[in-house]
Design brief:
This protein is α+β, with helices and mostly antiparallel strands. The protein contains 19 helices and 5 strands. A hairpin with a 2-residue loop joins strand 1 and strand 2 (about 30-35).
Length: about 400
């Protein structure tokens, strides 16, 4: 067989798709091509997860629903990505830049570059992978033949095994679904679940999952797989609305729901869909929980929280929020104090301190890097604010609480 010029193939794919392409021989990267200039390759954040995928064709989906496609052939590994079907939010890209150790002075260019990557449905990426797989492995596969290789599913599956009784679907037997005599017991069960999502009470939700009865809904599809997918779509619709009622931004909730549904449609295993559904419900509850909306805040407070959620890695000021909400700064400050009992500045800095605590505990990023990511002007500024609201310096906090 004629020798294959993989560099040429990678460059052609990169030009046609507008998505970064890499080629590895063993663990050494031998080729990289992208029509978009990025100061750091975002793949480095997910290298370990992507490297675990050893089947001829696979893909990895990140927590923000960007995806990487992979083709393996002997000691060669072809990786294309990231891309997604809808545009990332700036805050998501700034978080990615933080995790990829992009220097603070390059973050804006990195965000702009990531936005310039061509957006593409996952099934289109998989079609490209099937073509590359045919070239490398002389194997003709179609989309329906491509298995799901999402490293995230391993942990989801393990969690589901520990909480089998928490399943939102009754998948005991196909005959139960086909019998047309199943008893509808969904309403009260779903209302309990939606109430917990609305409150953002993830701790109570996890306990509820452990004892929730099996759901026996009506027949809404001719086969078990389609039944499970349709039920997933219904659940996504319900929990996204519950999260909106709990204070989650409408566009955020609907975009997250769409992303989960798109991912579900690519699955061909009932267990994978059930695992994903459990993960989805918890993620919506966590989004509401992060908004700290347990006490039914006013619309103004909710609007401020939404703004902060989308600009957490920027220097957030009262002037910027007032401009975003089309009101004067004095009115904003006065009304916010009336609604919450605390000043807007304290509220902003407390939220940033809480995020800093999470990053200090669960990442190995330096205090300098974390402070810069959260929009503080210097390490000294970050340390002073953190000590004021956390009672100790960032270094002291990490030494006490990091795992």
């Amino acid at each position: 067989m004629k020798s294959i010029d993989m560099g040429y193939i990678c460059k052609v794919i990169g030009n046609l798709s507008g998505i970064p392409v890499r080629l590895f021989r063993g663990e050494r990267q031998v080729f990289y091509y992208s029509i978009v200039e990025l100061s750091k390759d975002p793949m480095i954040v997910y290298f370990d997860e992507i490297w675990k995928i050893q089947a001829h064709i696979g893909y990895f989906v990140t927590r923000h629903f960007n995806y990487y496609g992979i083709v393996n052939s002997g000691n060669l590994k072809f990786v294309i990505g990231p891309t997604r079907q809808v545009l990332n939010k700036d805050q998501e890209l700034r978080e990615l830049a933080f995790r990829a150790d992009v220097p603070p002075e390059d973050v804006d260019d990195f965000v702009t570059g990531m936005k310039s990557i061509v957006r593409m449905p996952l099934d289109s990426v998989l079609q490209m992978l099937c073509t590359i797989n045919y070239i490398l492995n002389d194997e003709k596969l179609e989309l329906k033949d491509v298995a799901i290789f999402d490293a995230e599913q391993d942990s989801l599956r393990e969690l589901a095994e520990q909480q089998r009784s928490s399943r939102l679907l009754d998948t005991d037997t196909a005959s139960d679904i086909q019998s047309q005599t199943a008893v509808h017991n969904t309403y009260m069960i779903e209302q309990e679940m939606l109430q917990l999502v609305r409150k953002g009470d993830t701790a109570a939700l996890k306990k509820w999952f452990a004892t929730a009865p099996a759901v026996r809904g009506g027949v809404i599809a001719p086969d078990q797989l389609r039944q499970t997918k349709n039920t997933f779509v219904v659940t996504a619709t319900l929990v996204s609305r519950a999260a909106i009622h709990g204070g989650m931004d409408v566009q955020d909730a609907l975009s997250l729901s769409d992303a989960f549904i798109q991912k579900c449609e690519l699955f061909y295993s009932i267990e994978q869909i059930v695992n994903l559904q459990y993960h989805m419900v918890l993620q919506f509850a966590e989004q509401v929980e992060q908004m700290h909306l347990g006490k039914a805040p006013s619309k103004l407070v909710t609007d401020v929280l939404h703004y902060m959620q989308h600009h957490l890695s920027e220097p957030i000021t009262a002037d910027a929020i007032a401009q975003e909400l089309f009101m004067s700064r004095p009115y904003l400050s006065r009304k916010f104090k009336e609604d919450t009992g605390e000043s807007l500045t304290d509220f902003i800095l407390k939220r940033k301190t809480e995020e800093a605590k999470r990053l200090l505990r669960y990442t190995d990023k330096s205090a300098t890097t974390i402070g810069a990511y959260l929009g503080f002007s210097s390490l000294g500024h970050f340390s002073r604010v953190f000590k004021k609201y956390a009672g100790r310096t960032p270094i002291e906090y990490r030494e006490k609480y990091s795992k």
